[in-house]
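Below is the record:
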Amino acid sequence: MRTYYDCVVIGGGPAGGSAASIVAKAGLDTLLIERDAMPRFHIGESLMPETYWAFERLGLTERIRKAGFQAKKSVQFVTHRGTESEPFFFRAHDDRPCSTTWQVERSEFDKLLFDRAGELGADCYDQTRLLDVHFDENHKATGVSVRTADGNNHSIDCRVVIDATGQQSFIANKLKLKQVDANLKKVAIWTYYRGAVRGEGDNEGATIILNTESRDSWFWFIPLSRGITSIGCVGDSDCLLNNGAKPEAVFFDQLARCPGLTPRLIDAVRLGDIRTAKEFSYSTSQHAGDGWVLVGDAFGFIDPVYSSGVFFALEMGIRAGDAIVAGFKKEDLSREQLQSWTAEFLEGSQWIRKLVHAFYSKEFSIGRFMKRHPEHRGQITNLLIGRIFESSAEQVFQDMEAMMKESATM
């Protein structure tokens, strides 16, 4: 490991791997570090179709296609009564190859991205822990301290630090930039099953969103390869874990209250432990500074319901990488240059945030909304695809808000 790099990327997930690939391919001396040994477990297995264009940019489309991941061609919703919606088939809206995406084992998927950054010229180290990010008296990032797998500490100078540390959000926590969404204080409790009943035909690999009877929680159903399915419960942390409730007991209690899911697991076998994550919905008040930028979950995370996390991470990594490459060409690594992509990103991602808040409103039903406003089916599908940077969804949410207000008065 050298003592100087043009760019240091902290975190080997989708955001870090894509950012490192972009800057390394441009010829910048790039270091990518990951705390854990690669490959390593991570949640967030369902991809939006718009990830296709990131794979094209990174030169990974064929590798992803041949990796053996479960194909995902649709999304489906199931009500608190167990009534199934018509699947939202992506190809009905766009019949190009990008309409098929994947449900991925993140250990294998992230390793593909990590290795690709190495192929493009980055020095890639796993089992390397970030100790600190260094700033000068003008609050400009100047380097990092790390500890490698052999236990040795290293001080590395650089021109730019890309923080892709995920929910650790190292710089955001260090500079007190992290803001938890008070309306989305959720907990996720999940595990894995073998032999769960999936959809049929092209709906076999669908992500299914299933409400519980009370609509106080919901389950994800994400079919992976090798007959394994990721099953997770999400609800208000204070509600589900009140009075010291144990996550495993909560999971099975909520499962018993989910009429759309219990038949799918009747002959399935649970694999492994129950896992949890709490209060994962947050934003950051500043996304970049002189010599540093946040990407992926270090930038912020909305909610798992529409599977936007990996897509956003890839999108941010590529956009930040492009801004850094342009900044080196102009000799401008200021906050303004490094965050030049963030306004457009936030403008597009707001539509997913709005859709998430609508989902958690008991006055909202996606099925009822589509019956009332069939003209919005294409735009709703756009949101589920991740096509959020090309056009406004303002009218969709005006009609959605009006319908929810009407339902609240009934």
